[in-house]
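2024-03-11 09:14:02 DEBUG pipeline.ingest accepted 1 chain
2024-03-11 09:14:02 DEBUG pipeline.ingest length=102
2024-03-11 09:14:03 DEBUG pipeline.predict start
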Amino acid sequence: MWALCLGIALHGIARAGGSIAWSLWVTKFAEGDHVAEYMSVHTFLCGVRGVIAPFVAFPAALWLGPHVVGAVGAGLIGIASLIILPSVRFGGSGGEADQADD
């Protein structure tokens, strides 16, 4: 039972941190006076993804099988993690603008 409670607690902490990071990530790309505009576009596109994804994922899972769809998803997560790694590691957007400030 203690392992379940520990797992639930860690899951809650991770979800809270993810929500904060999701909300604040836009500030790494937007200039101070454009944060609201970037956040509105970011939120809109996440909503579009949420509406379209089931119509793509369920037929793909039926056609390819859930293991293949899961493997493709894991691969895309890995690629996205590698792309974002320079920004997380060095605290910048990873672009030329950050390097020019040094």
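2024-03-11 09:14:41 DEBUG pipeline.report Residues 94-100 have pLDDT under 50 and may be disordered.
2024-03-11 09:14:41 DEBUG pipeline.predict end
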